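Troubleshooting entry. The earlier prediction with S-adenosylmethionine gave an output that would not parse, so I re-checked the input for stray whitespace and re-submitted. Clean input:
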Amino acid sequence: MTSLVYSDIRLYRTVMQVLYSGRYRQRFEDITAVIPAGTRSVCDLCFGDTVIAGWCRSQGIEWTGVDLNSSFCARARQLGHHVIEGDLMTMELPPADVYVMAGSLYHFHSRLAELCDRVFARTRTFVVSEPVRNLSASRGPIGWWARRSANPGDAHATFRYNEATLTGALEEQCRRLGLRMRVVSVGRDMLLVMERRTEVT
Ligand SMILES: C[S@@+](CC[C@H](N)C(=O)[O-])C[C@H]1O[C@@H](n2cnc3c(N)ncnc32)[C@H](O)[C@@H]1O
């Protein structure tokens, strides 16, 4: 069953505001700040909220959101955004100049190669923002609750990255696919950009 936190955007935002000590919106602003000038289309995987969608609209960038949560998708559609509802690992993903994934990579840790194959079949640039300092790593009831609160509807996602495991996992994908990776910042979240190398002719 989907976690209660994922059932309503207001509840989700409240919980995230607490987890991010009031800097919930700032993490999206950090992400949009690294979207390259001239970007015409963005695909926001596991978008949940529509902060990036709103920014794209204000910039005249075409935004497509992908999420399997029907309540988040319905809300985004009501706001007039283009949404593909379903499991991003089985659907046909759209081409886009830039792909974004915020706070969701841990859901795919055991299928990271498959995820990167799917993403880089559709784009050259993948912006990832992922928590690396997690409450869910805490012992006791708070850690238990944080681990249990991230069930998108399939299984409780108890795995979380830290700085070393995230860097290691993504560097492995960069080696495998011939990408370069730029770490933009490291705080509670690690923000990084993976890009296809530009061929020199
Ligand atoms: C922790 S939330 C992150 C939401 C938002 N990006 C943010 O940073 O606040 C994870 C999101 O991933 C979605 N999700 C999880 N597994 C998915 C899958 N296989 N396909 C599509 N969406 C998925 C969930 O429905 C949820 O909206």
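This one parsed fine. Helices lie at 9-19, 24-32, 51-59, 70-78, 112-120, 140-148, 163-177.
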